[in-house]
Amino acid sequence: MTLASLPYRAFDNFFLQAQRVRKLLQLEFADAFRCPSPLAAESVGAKLGADGVDVLVHPSAINTAPLLGASATSKTAGYVQDVLNVGASLAGLPAVSVPAGRAEDGWPVGVQVVGQWGMDELVLDVGRALEES
Length: 133
What we know:
Blueprint: H1 8-32, E1 55-59, H2 77-81, H3 86-91, E2 95-102, E3 108-115, H4 120-132
Antiparallel strand pairs: 1-3, 2-3
């Protein structure tokens, strides 16, 4: 089996740019958390100090699930629905999505809990507490 290689231009244009964007996203998340990132230099992250947060909690999806057979407004509608889950994955942060009740239309909704790198246990504990409440 041979590994495909990226031509120089593609590597420079896509891969390196994606890595830069990923690093910026990691720094933005690091600034939000009270606990500094163990992966970042000491001068980076946790700028908010005591005003930072331990975890971020936000909706798991933009809308409730569409009915089967319902026509989507565009071919990308399914991908856009999951956009709120992408940030934590790109930043390499622990995250969990848990049920959080029902929307006005009766369909279930969820919230995602995101924590600082290495805080997996805290993320799971908060997720468990939210699910039980």
